[in-house]
Predict the structure of NAD(P)/FAD-dependent oxidoreductase.
Amino acid sequence: MTTETKFDAIIIGAGAAGLMAAMTAGQRGRRVLLLDHNAEPGAKILISGGGRCNFTNREAPANRFLSGNPHFAKSALSRYKPADFIALVDRAGIAWHEKTLGQLFCDGSAQQIVAMLMKGCRDAGVIFRFDTPIASVSRQSMFHVKTEGREEFRAPALIIATGGLSIPKLGATGFAYRIAEQFDLPMIKPEPALVPLTFDQPDLPLMRGLSGTPCEVVATAGKTRFREAMIFTHRGLSGPAILQISSYLKAGDSFTVDLLPGANAREALLATKRTRPRVALRTALAEHLPQRLAHALAPEDDQAPPIGETSDKVIGALAERVQNWRLTPEGTEGFAKAEVTRGGIDTRALSSQTMASNDVPGLHFIGESVDVTGWLGGYNFQWAWASGFAAGQAV
Ligand code: FDA
């Protein structure tokens, strides 16, 4: 336990961004205090990537990030690249592998990433205080941080790294937003992103009946499209394609799903009509889709005519449903299931170089608390590393 009360920088939040900022500032010889209300650091790192942490992506161009200002993230991302984090992981002797779409995972466990960052912080002299809820933050000639344990720490720089609202049971709070409000910084409304979608009538019964069925799809909203896996759930849709598109939808927006990417359902069914007219329509469709899905999309009774006696119009309508299924979610599974929070501290209030407030000198916001939201696939950690590095270099 530290008896010091004055530091060069205080960082609140020992997640991905806070650990990176603390290590970076400590390595520059700064005296750093890192506080967290959780008993352990990096709760989200530990559960990420199914316990193997998708710690970055091979490439992290700025167009993989959503923000009110799409240019904001460029500076930090260009000064701390995926290759920089890979070099850190390699120096720590952590084995990793690449999955689809450039996603990099630990061979072993996400615990290795937390251990690597904690060792980096310790070697750099960072002082930790876990299990330390914050009572108040104020700014006089310096920032004063009072804990609920009635301790008080001071520093000329304060880095807020408390993340967003997703998964409250892991310790997520709206702390960053309260600090923004206290210091009059503008906010973009925080909302769940990378989140499963929920549906109502008329689509829900079909989705519920197919719960657990996976398929590869293209999900499209406006000009944005993702070709990835989708899975039906008892409340609607999930899987990477759906999580990705969810980040682009506002309440009431619709999107389309192509259940047969890269193929032409109409031509395929019409070819079957010509060559094997006695086949049932649902059987013809099941040659291209998982059987449960084909049967749900083309329900038939015993009287249904074979494909040879089905009109081209009916076949065309089925093909349209398969390849251009228009869906309007009723809502999302909310922050309890969202992988990230979109929105947050408005980037107009921050320096893209240092992540510091333009109006409150020394007050920095990093990671998920900021209105920069990555795609699924290691991009959110890359933003945490890059923004944490930018602030750690600046304090
Ligand atoms: P993060 O949430 O990591 O850390 C915030 C810290 O602040 C926590 O330690 C918390 O306890 C602390 N804190 C909060 N409120 C506080 C308060 N009031 N007082 C004191 N401390 C407080 N991304 C990715 O790139 N690859 C992946 O594989 C995954 N996988 C994944 C799985 C799941 C289930 C989730 C929920 C999320 C992911 N993510 C992901 C997203 C990724 O985890 C996320 O974007 C980063 O952890 C954000 O890092 P931050 O440091 O900004 O916040």
Notes: Residues 12-18, 36-38, 43-44, 47-49, 53-54, 133-134, 161-163, 166-167, 171-173, 175, 339-340, 367-368, 378-381, 384 surround dihydroflavine-adenine dinucleotide (CB under 6 Å). The longest strand covers residues 224-232. The domain at 9-192+340-394 is CATH 3.50.50.60 (FAD/NAD(P)-binding domain). The chain has two domains: 9-192+340-394, 196-333.
